[in-house]
Amino acid sequence: MTPTDAVETFLTEPPAAPGPRLLLNAEDPAQCSRWVISGYQGPVLPPRLTSPVFERVDSGRPATWRLRSREGEWEFRAIAVDRHEERPELLAPLLAGFALRWHERAAARLLLRLLHLPGGAWLLRRWHERRR
């Protein structure tokens, strides 16, 4: 995993679910980037990492990895180290044709609120049939 010329800062995030998974989220929300380290077994990392570079040291299961950043260097064991980058600009044109118009969204919201009333499910079904 090669370093980039741009300076990127990531914040370590404790796992939300039980299990040895470590998340490094981009400090700048506009980056839409995150590192996911599955099966993390290693030292506690600092809360902020600048320009992290991951190198695989061996190919065991779990593999040994080396993390280098401006803050230091650490070795840890992990099943996988993956970088996830969201690219909303690629998906937006593809999904635009499936988006509901504003009046359809308003009708759906109203019908979902009426579901608890008698006849609400029938109204929702009729609206959905008419949209086909």
Ordered list of secondary-structure elements with their pairings:
Elements lengths: L8 E5 L7 E6 L6 E6 L9 E3 L2 E4 L6 E7 L2 E7 L1 E6 L2 H8 L6 H12 L6 H12 L1
Antiparallel strand pairs: 1-2, 1-4, 2-3, 3-8, 5-6, 6-7
Helix pairs in contact: 2-3
Describe the structure.
- This protein is α+β, with helices and mostly antiparallel strands and about 130 residues long.
- It is about 25% helix and about 35% strand.
- The chain is built from 3 helices and 8 strands, in the order E-E-E-E-E-E-E-E-H-H-H.
- It has helices spanning about 90-95, 100-115, 120-130; strands spanning about 10-15, 20-25, 35-40, 50, 55, 65-70, 70-80, 80-85.
- The protein has a 5-stranded antiparallel sheet, with no helix packed on it. A 3-stranded antiparallel sheet has the order 5-6-7, with no helix packed on it.
- Strand 6 and strand 7 form a beta hairpin.
- The longest helix is centred in the C-terminal third of the chain and has 12 residues, at about 100-115.
- The radius of gyration is 23 Å and the shape is elongated.
- The mean pLDDT is about 85.
Tell me, rounded to a whole number, the average pLDDT: 84
The proportion of strand residues reads 25-35%
Compute the separation of the termini in Å. 48 Å
Structural class: alpha+beta
Question: In angstroms, what is the radius of gyration?
Answer: 23 Å
H/E series, N to C? EEEEEEEEHHH
